[in-house]
Request: fold
Amino acid sequence: MTSKICIKCALTKHLDEYRKGRNSCKACEAATLKEWRSANKEKMEASRKVWSYVNKDSVTDHVREKKIVNESAIFSMVEYANFVVWITPNF
Reply:
């Protein structure tokens, strides 16, 4: 068996286009999820806030790590810009 019929769009698609144990294709699942998210924005926001509060330590660590990476990237860009200005002749 190399193909399967999607229960939502009724198209025959290859098994690679399905998640394991699902009867609807990835495209149909993505469309359903997008529709649900647009209809439940408040619920998603409340859930995100609860998760962030419960996992405050990991959120803080993630923000700290991201800040360190961004600072080093900005330093590298400034260092490169200074180097380019230094080697560029003034005409």
User: Anything to note?
Assistant: The chain has three helices and two strands.
